[in-house]
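Two proteins were folded this term; both appear here.
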Amino acid sequence: MKMTHKRILMLNYEYPPLGVDYFIDKGSIRNKEYVSKYGLQRLAKGFFDLIVISFWQKFSARPIHVFGGLGLLLGISGAMLGGFMGMERLFFGKSLSDRPLFLLAVLMVIIGVQFVVSGILADIMLKVYYGQNQRKNYLIERVVE
């Protein structure tokens, strides 16, 4: 058994630094069996990190493409669903008040409009940011004269 000598300076606000001597018996330390920390959870987190980085690189300079696309998808889907239910109301006399699908259609249209407006506002904010700071959101590879 090896004995190791360590010296620690204990820093405290109330007392001056005190030197403390202690010994560690190396023979009594048992190391735990190695367990890999790389598993499915870490693999999934890495995959999602790659998706976020890829998404950020593609759409950080043009948020209207993301928000506008989602907004149009939701808005058109909601309008089609609402139109279908309106046709059922007109031609078959089905009530809209007892069907939650109609509320879903209205909600989809409203959220779609909000997404489009958010995309427009984000695009305006990017243009103001790059305009004020005179920064460019692109790199010039070479200048051809």
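Next, the second protein.
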Amino acid sequence: MEDESNPWPSFVDTFSTVLCIFIFLMLVFALNNMIIMYDNSIKVYKANIESKTKSTAQK
């Protein structure tokens, strides 16, 4: 016997939907940052290897 004039169920439903969307966006944002950091670290690692091989070749 649910009272139709009670606004709480629809409010909770809206809140949970917004919360799910917010969590999903945060996950996408975090994943994107991880991919960017991984890509940058690979570039730095390759640059370090190339500079070390050049310095050993010059010796």
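The CA atoms of residues 5 and 13 lie 15 Å apart. The chain has a mean pLDDT of 87. These notes refer to the second protein only.
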